[in-house]
Write a structure and sequence with these properties.
62% helix, globular, 2 strands, 72 residues, two-stranded antiparallel sheet, 434 Repressor (Amino-terminal Domain), mainly alpha
Length: 72
């Protein structure tokens, strides 16, 4: 799943450790989500969306959805 977490975090000037603390997860978890190595649980995705004040679908995009959007 693609996501905009790194961009949103950088816009606020937060480190991965700061974001992790706000979410109650490890810095490694934040890194894994940002690099696409880990998809967050639904409760964590809702927590991320609430923290940034955005709907989940504006932060996370399923791979299959991107494929559909790039078709001619």
């Amino acid at each position: 799943m693609k996501n905009r977490l790194r961009v949103l975090r950088a816009e606020r000037g937060w480190s991965q450790a700061e974001l992790a603390q706000r979410l109650g997860v490890s810095r490694q978890t934040v890194n894994a989500i940002e690099t696409g190595k880990y998809d967050p649980s639904l409760p964590l995705a809702f927590k991320i969306a609430e923290l940034f004040g955005q709907p989940i679908e504006s932060i996370f995009t399923p791979e299959w959805r991107e494929d559909e959007e790039t078709k001619p």
